[in-house]
Amino acid sequence: MTQVAWLMGSDSDYPKLEKGFVTLKELGIAVIGRVLSAHRTPAQTQEFVKQSEAGGVKVFICAAGMAAHLAGAVAAHSSRPVIGIPVDSGALKGLDALLSTAQMPPGVPVATVGIDGSVNAAILAAQILGTGDEGIAKKVIDWRAAQTAKVLEKDKRLQEKLSG
Ligand code: RP5
Predict the structure, then answer these.
(1) How many angstroms does the Cα of residue 141 sit away from the middle of ligand 1?
(2) C-alpha–C-alpha distance, residues 153 and 35, integer Å
């Protein structure tokens, strides 16, 4: 069953998000990806949220650039957790999207990650799902342990370079 629905404002956003999709795959989490826009397909976005919830989606991830209201629009129509990713597109390099995504009115939160923070969005979604699924929680712990090992390896390589 699809656990995560990942919306993006345009297919031009996808290259900035691909690592996050890979991360969800590594964690064994089923995701559906869609291009939908708060401004350009408002009716379809609302309908998709309704259908996704009925189909068992537990977490939404929404990525958009510029006046990025996609995450907020989804949050307005859902009681499930919504993670927002501001995308660096356009003249303001993502700062516009960051403020538009994060600065929600009280009562309608969007858990906003950093600009182009697709991997953190994927990990946060897994952590949310992991609160009710021990298998996913264990995969997050293993993923983080692998990350630690990679950083220690980088440190080792640096030490070798500096002492050589
Ligand atoms: C936003 O406008 C999208 O999320 C994208 O970041 C940006 C440009 O969209 P396209 O013109 O490439 O469709 O709504």
Answers:
(1) 34
(2) 38
- Pick the residue whose CA is nearest to atom 11 on ligand 1: 10
The neighbouring-strand residues paired with 59 are 4
Over residues 61-106, the pLDDT tens digits come to 999 999 999 999 999 999 999 999 999 999 999 999 999 999 999 9
CATH topology of domain 4-163: Rossmann fold (3.40.50)
For ligand 1, residues with CB inside 6 Å are: 9-10, 12-13, 37, 64-66, 87, 89
pTM of the model: 0.96
Nearest to 13 by CA among 72, 90, 100: 90
* Residue extents of the structural domains in the chain: 4-163
| Minimal-distance CA residue to ligand 1 atom 7 | 65
